[in-house]
Design brief:
This protein is α/β, with parallel strands linked by helices. It has two domains: 38-161 and 308-375, 3-Layer(aba) Sandwich (Rossmann fold); 164-299 and 392-410, Rossmann fold (3-Layer(aba) Sandwich), CATH 3.40.50. Helices cover 42% and strands 18% of the residues. It is built from 14 helices and 14 strands. β13 (392-398) and β14 form a beta hairpin.
């Protein structure tokens, strides 16, 4: 007692120091403070290295941009968002599985895939945990898994709509050009080159069937491996013998597509060249330069490059302010909108751990976005495709610019015969 009385000021000072010490460390580690910032983790698996690294990098940028917007506006119900990225590299099954495993074990509350595994085998594993999962690619494989029993996948939805229009619409638009006298094929012959991915094969088979129904004759159908291809000349030599009036190259790897176009122009002939997906990326135009003029491509999802598309203009402005360059490809928008779709559901439900309720809210999405109106089909859990939903866009590159030929309400230009036509 005597010690306490004599040292009461000393003890008081120690007590004050302890309080200040606690406050200091609480500031260093916000989780110790009463007003701790709560965090929702979004796991993104994307190919940030490998053949399609450009898509992976754009995906990460789309996620970062959406999360920055949401957090700067105050977050959601007291939560701030953050993204964890796992690299799927060349998207082999083991690489995808490793990425998913790492994210799930990092206690993420939502998963988003960008250009993920070809068969989407990971869907079943994720469904067992009921983690909200938003996909952005290869909807045909998603549909195969979900359509037989959609009730087994209450938290899994795909922002990519049915890709059937990739195979059906370009031939129909081409027939319209023929009717209007804008394109007069010497013979109704076509050739298809595809890589061995599910994405390319599905589009190639579908377009082949449509063209044959329109009484076109297939003179070549070649399948190449999904790998780097530097020399297309042996295959082009065959094409120069057949001289088809329409060529589809469905190899989406940008370097491969660029090499094909440059080597075709070494000795061109009168054929429309349609490249699947690769021209969406600015890298394709950078690699092909003047040889890209006249090339046709289509896109389902991604920005709608038209002065009439207000949401694309708004997105492009925000993207350029953040990254100092224009967005390229489609996955920046797919992932950007996927984050916002999840955020809308979280805002509605409140608790990020209420996975089934969040899945229900995602399924009820109906909103206008950069790539069109997103509304999910109840049987397949795919976003709806069509002119009033997510439209197919058909472009022709001309002197480095992307001219939107179709969908009509956003069109910026008319079709022109490529400069190699004689």
């Amino acid at each position: 007692m005597v010690f306490l009385k004599k040292n009461k000021y000393f003890i008081k000072r120690i007590f004050i120091l302890l309080i200040f010490s606690f406050l200091f460390w609480a500031l260093q580690f916000p989780c110790l403070a009463a007003g701790a910032e709560k965090v929702v983790r979004i796991g993104l698996f994307a190919p940030v290295t490998g053949l399609t690294a450009a898509d992976g990098i754009e995906s990460k940028r789309g996620a970062d941009l959406a999360i920055k917007e949401i957090n700067n506006s105050g977050g959601i119900n007291g939560y701030k968002l953050e993204v964890l990225v796992a690299d799927t590299k060349d998207r082999t099954p083991d690489q995808v599985l490793s990425a998913v495993y790492n994210l799930v074990n990092s206690n993420v509350d939502c998963l988003i895939s960008s250009s993920g595994g070809g068969s989407h085998f990971e869907i079943r594993d994720i469904a067992e945990k009921n983690i909200p999962y938003l996909l952005t690619d290869i909807p045909s494989e998603v549909e195969k898994i979900i359509k037989p029993s959609p009730e087994k996948f209450p938290t899994i939805y795909c922002l990519a709509p049915n890709f059937n229009a990739y195979g059906t619409d370009p031939p129909r638009v081409m027939e319209k050009w023929i009717t209007e006298g804008k394109f007069n094929p010497a013979e109704r012959k076509f050739a298809i080159i595809t890589n061995d991915s599910a994405y390319s094969l599905d589009i190639s088979e579908r377009m082949k069937k449509v063209l044959e129904k329109m009484e076109w004759t297939c003179v070549m159908y070649e399948t190449v491996p999904t790998t780097d291809i530097y020399d297309w000349r042996p295959l082009l030599a065959k094409l120069r013998v057949y001289k088809p009036s329409f060529i589809l190259n469905a190899d989406y790897v940008v370097g491969n597509a660029a090499n094909f176009v440059k080597q075709f122009n070494e000795d061109p002939f009168n054929s429309l060249i349609f490249i699947q997906y690769a021209p969406v990326l600015q890298e394709f135009i950078d690699l092909t330069k003047e040889y890209s003029t006249g090339i046709l491509y289509s896109l389902i999802g991604g920005p709608i490059y038209s002065p009439k598309a207000e949401k694309t203009i708004e997105f492009t402005k925000k993207y350029e302010e953040e990254y100092g360059e224009k967005p390229t490809g489609a996955y920046n928008v797919y992932v950007y909108e996927a984050v916002h779709v999840y955020a809308d559901a979280l805002r509605k439900v409140g608790n990020p751990k209420e996975y089934l309720e969040i899945g229900k809210a995602i399924g009820e999405t109906d909103k206008d976005t950069v790539m069109g109106r997103i509304k999910f089909d109840k049987e397949t859990h795919l976003a709806l495709q069509g002119d009033e939903y997510i439209p197919l866009q058909l472009y022709q590159i001309w002197e480095g610019e992307r001219n939107l030929l179709f969908i009509e309400k956003f069109a910026t230009s008319d079709f022109q015969l490529p400069p190699w036509f004689k």
